[in-house]
UniProtKB/TrEMBL annotation:
This is Cupin domain-containing protein. Transmembrane segments: none annotated. Residues 41-104 form the Cupin type-2 domain. SUPFAM superfamilies: RmlC-like cupins (SSF51182). InterPro entries: Cupin_2, QDO-like, RmlC-like_jellyroll, RmlC_Cupin_sf. The lineage of its organism: Bacteria, Bacillati, Actinomycetota, Actinomycetes, Propionibacteriales. It comes from the Bacteria. Pfam families: Cupin_2 (PF07883).
Length: 148
């Protein structure tokens, strides 16, 4: 593995319905793999809980979010961290105008999911109008809506 240095304005941006996901690093070596994203999220209704095959860590940099993990709500502000275990229904909602946080995921699947989602689901269309595309992208990456 080589050293990675990413400046604040660098990284591939994936516009999504819950905010911009900026890929900062994808690391893979003999010890495992993980990906790091900066998420810039506006206030929006909470997406339905979903289940992904990777674990994730949400570390709040600015603003506040309510993280829902397996039916439990966690109020998180700057410096707070919430772990989203793999295969566990999870989602988040921005409290206030916007939030910025790091999302660190295990494995190498989240980046492919974000890229596919960004290409396939228009970020400026209501979720109800894009539901078919959302389900198709989710199925391609082993992600499902909780209870669906």
């Amino acid at each position: 593995m080589t050293t990675i240095h990413v400046r604040p304005d660098e990284g591939q941006t994936y516009p999504m319905i819950d905010g911009d996901h900026v890929a900062k690093a994808a690391v893979s070596d003999d010890a495992g793999a993980f990906e790091v994203f900066e998420v810039r999220a506006p206030a929006a209704p909470m997406a339905p809980p979903h289940v992904s095959p990777w674990s994730g860590v949400l570390y709040v940099l600015e603003g506040r979010v309510t993280a829902m993990v397996d039916g439990t709500a966690y109020d998180a502000g700057p410096g707070d961290l919430v772990v989203f275990p793999a295969r566990t229904p999870s989602t988040f909602e921005v409290v206030g105008e916007s939030a910025r946080f790091l999302a660190i995921t295990t494995g190498d699947g989240a980046g492919r999911f974000f890229a596919d989602f960004s290409r396939s689901v228009p970020a400026d269309r209501p979720v109800e109008e894009s539901f078919g595309e959302i389900l198709a992208v989710a199925a391609r990456h082993g992600v499902s809506l909780a209870g669906a």
